[in-house]
Write a structure and sequence with these properties.
Length: 224
C-alpha cells in the first residue's frame, strides 16, 4: 500500500532499517526490523519475478493510496505496535509529528487509516507487515475498490513461508526461542492471539501519551 515506485525508476531493492543506538537500547527493535527486511526482500523478489516473467507492472506508487482508506481490517502484531509507538515518539518531529498526532486524536474507526498524510503513508518505514504484503499489478485501485475481490489475479499472492519466516523473527519477544518451539508456534498460530486490528486501537488515547512523551510500554489497557 502506498509504496514508492515509478515507471522511470526500477523498483528499489529494500534495505534493512538501521538505528544502532535505539537497537542497543531496546532488545525488541532488531527483531521487528529483521522481520521487516525479510518481508520486504521476499516481496521484492516476488514482484521482480512477476515483472520479468509475466511482464506485469506494479501499480502501487507514492500518492496512490485508496487502499489506505478502503481497507479497514489491517492486522498489527504486538511488536509492530511497539515499533510504531517508538517511531512516533522518537523518529518524527516538528510540523509533521503535529499533523500525525492531530489525525490520531481525531481518528474515527472505519474512516481510513490515521497515518495517511497527503496521499502517502506517514509512517512508511514502520508500516505494518500487512501493508507491505499488499501489492497490486496493472492498474491502481479505484476509490473504494478492494482488488482482492474485484480482480484477485492482479493482487500479489503472499508467500506463506516468507510470512512465517518473518513472524518467527518476532517470536523471541513472546519467549519462544528454539527452532522446534518456533515451528510449533507457527503451526498452532500462537501469535495470532495477540494480533490487533489497526482500526480498533484507541489512537486518540495513544496520541495523548505521545504528546506527554510517555515511555511506559504499550499494553492492552493503554490501547483500548
Ligand atoms: S495500487 Fe491499490 S494497493 Fe497499490 S498503492 Fe494503489 S491503491 Fe494501494
Ligand atoms: S499504515 Fe496506513 S497509511 Fe500506511 S500503508 Fe498502511 S494503511 Fe496505508
Amino acid at each position: 500500500m502506498a509504496r514508492v515506485n515509478s515507471k522511470k525508476k526500477p523498483y528499489p531493492e529494500p534495505e534493512r532499517l538501521s538505528f544502532p543506538d535505539a537497537e542497543a537500547a531496546f532488545d525488541w527493535l532488531p527483531l521487528i526490523l529483521d522481520a521487516y527486511i525479510i518481508s520486504d526482500q521476499g516481496i521484492y523478489d516476488s514482484i521482480q519475478k512477476e515483472m520479468a516473467k509475466k511482464g506485469r507492472r506494479l501499480a502501487c506508487a507514492r500518492g496512490c493510496s485508496s487502499c489506505c482508506t478502503t481497507h479497514v481490517t489491517i492486522p498489527v502484531y504486538p511488536l509492530e505496535l511497539f515499533g510504531l509507538y517508538w517511531y512516533l515518539l522518537d523518529k518524527i518531529d516538528g510540523a509533521f509529528k503535529h499533523r500525525i498526532l492531530e489525525q490520531l486524536q481525531d481518528f474515527i474507526p472505519g474512516k481510513g487509516c490515521p497515518f495517511l498524510i497527503d496521499g502517502a503513508c506517514g509512517i512508511h518505514p514502520m508500516r505494518p507487515m500487512a501493508c507491505r504484503f499488499f501489492n497490486v499489478f496493472n492498474k491502481a485501485c479505484e476509490d473504494g475498490e478492494d482488488p482482492f475481490y474485484t480482480r484477485r489475479h492482479d493482487v500479489l499472492t503472499p508467500d506463506e513461508k516468507l510470512k512465517d519466516k518473518a513472524i518467527s523473527k518476532m517470536l523471541p519477544h513472546h519467549g519462544i526461542l528454539g527452532r522446534t518451539d518456533k515451528k510449533e508456534a507457527l503451526r498452532n498460530g500462537y501469535i495470532y492471539r495477540f494480533v490487533r486490528n489497526l482500526q480498533e486501537i484507541n489512537w486518540p488515547k495513544i496520541a495523548v501519551r505521545i504528546k506527554h512523551g510517555d515511555r511506559a510500554p504499550l499494553v492492552r489497557s493503554t490501547m483500548e
